[in-house]
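[job 0412] stage=complex_fold ligand=pyridoxal-5'-phosphate status=START
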Amino acid sequence: MSNRLKVTPNDLSAFWMPFTANRQFKQAPRMMVSAKDMHYTTSDGRKVLDGTAGLWCVNAGHCRPKITEAIQHQAAELDYAPAFQMGHPIVFELANRLVDIAPKGMDHVFFTNSGSESVDTALKMAIAYHRAKGEGARTRLIGRERGYHGVNFGGISVGGIVSNRKMFGTLLGGVDHMPHTHLPEKNSFTKGVPEHGAELANELERIVALHDASTIAAVIVEPVAGSTGVILPPKGYLQKLREICTKHGILLIFDEVITGFGRLGAPFAADYFGVTPDIMTTAKGVSNGVIPMGAVFVKKEIHDAFMTGPEHMIEFFHGYTYSGNPIACAAALGTLDTYKEEGLLTRGEELAPYWEDALHSLKGEPHVIDIRNIGLIGAIELAPIPGSPTKRAFSAFVKAFERGALIRTTGDIIALSPPLIITKGQINELIDHVRDVLRSID
Ligand code: PXG
Ligand code: PLP
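[job 0412] stage=complex_fold status=DONE, emitting structure tokens
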């Protein structure tokens, strides 16, 4: 047992934890102290099967040697280089490697440090692009109800999660929202993408008719919504959105922070659905969650629209101190190597049918009112306890952790998204944990 395993922090109060019930946590902390491949080890020495790839990010599994070595080497070689007006070799190498695996036509990459930053970067790019082309009135942004686009002001403005918005004032102006596509009365217990609801894409036409296309810069959606409990696009829905955007000169942004890097069994959701956006935001799996990094992929036409004016002038007044940080780049290169060697960006395709069957075997277990799946994502929706929404799922989360499985809950929905290295045996183990937990909670 390493020394760290024995350490109990003597004061938990200084750290204000993100998206956490701080007071509850600090009374009964759940601490991870190490991790390897599919498992965490807790501070009391228990192994916990990672059913969520950390927070949807550790796609290659934990503490993978190629990634660890790349980081160690880079930290000793070049720790930091200024991101503005300076470069270093591996950030260019990484951009090329990413363009190589990106959907065709997405030829340029802008680096950020998180999904939230990727989203705000993409929204700013969209507005500035239209202005650069002489369409400066195109400033409106269209998001979707129940969308999650991170926590920065742009992202919560286009996002559609009420609790992430209501405390923070008036947000960005000029934003509108399409309806979400969750239709439980028609689609519950569907395996894969649902049949019903493609017509909801036509709501975009209604919004365009209201505001006029000449005022709209971009539409942003998650191809599969993750954070709000795994909401799938109905068959044909994304194609329709693409058509409407193209028809009206509106940019389509896919927020692939969760769906990117193999989660659906294809490198990106754009590949999976055969629909190419104009801008694609990513983070998480780009560096296996190991070092913060995000990447915004952009079509050539958009990038090129900025490359005008005097050559000594900055073309896009945007960037972060840590855009393309060398150690983050090294982590990302080690990650891409690992994905490639193990075929992880497409491994989900082979495993998806097994995953689907395992998940849907939970139909009929106590409290289960819907099950949804796509690629290596699963959601099990529970009936809420009357008057106490979220309580049932939260007890499932705590019970599962005690039993040895990490699951994630949002509202009364259990979301599963294991590392892409999971075996069939571990899928059974994970689903058995969930089954036992469902049978043991009130
Ligand atoms: N866009 C999407 C689609 C996301 O899923 C972000 C942006 C923001 O990324 P950062 O790196 O700023 O957190 C996300 C992040 C969950 C969960 O359990 C989901 C996310 C983050 C943490 C937890 O659903 N998604
Ligand atoms: N706040 C201050 C005072 C700064 O000087 C900077 C960057 O120089 C920032 C915020 C932005 O930080 P970052 O580039 O890490 O996003």
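Residues 1-7 have pLDDT under 50 and may be disordered.
[job 0412] exit 0
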